[in-house]
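Record passed on underneath.
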Amino acid sequence: MNGCARLIASRPASTDNAGDRIGWGMVRQSLLSGASRGGDEPIDAALRPLRLKDMVGQAAVVDKLNIAMAAAKKRGEPLEHILLDGPPGLGKTTLANVIAREMTEKPPRITSGPSLAKQADLMALLTSLEQGDVLFIDEVHRLPRIVEEFLYPAMEDFRVDLRLRAVSAVASSTSLCGGLP
């Protein structure tokens, strides 16, 4: 018997009261579910491409991105805003990592739409960015509308308008305008 057949045929030897083998169903279910097992992360990271030339598939998208990134580098500017759309597992996060590493040599700042519940969450994230940083918002379609509206001026004008309200006997409000890198 070769090593592969031996591995597939091996099962835990202990049994429960009904005579079933303990753990075999759980191991089999874990293998079939595709769920991450402990220790898979370093292997996954090692297999993900870091450069555009290493990307497999999505040839039309990769070609267009290559042209856009080359033009931005030639102009000495950051890459314009990009919306990556598609079903789960298509490689949007991997592509965001590749774009960030190609443009800045740093990984992107990654967050998700549902984690940005209020304007202050987005403000904290935006003000921590440095010139040329790549921000990847996974599930951007799930941003609350108030946060979405707050993001537009940051993307278009590279500034944010934040309204602060002071709670006192006489209510007042102050509007602050801050520039982004």
About this structure: Residues 1-22, 171-177 have pLDDT under 50 and may be disordered. The first strand starts at residue 109 and ends at 112. Helices lie at 3-9, 24-33, 40-47, 59-75, 92-104, 119-127, 145-157. The chain has two domains: 41-106, 108-181.
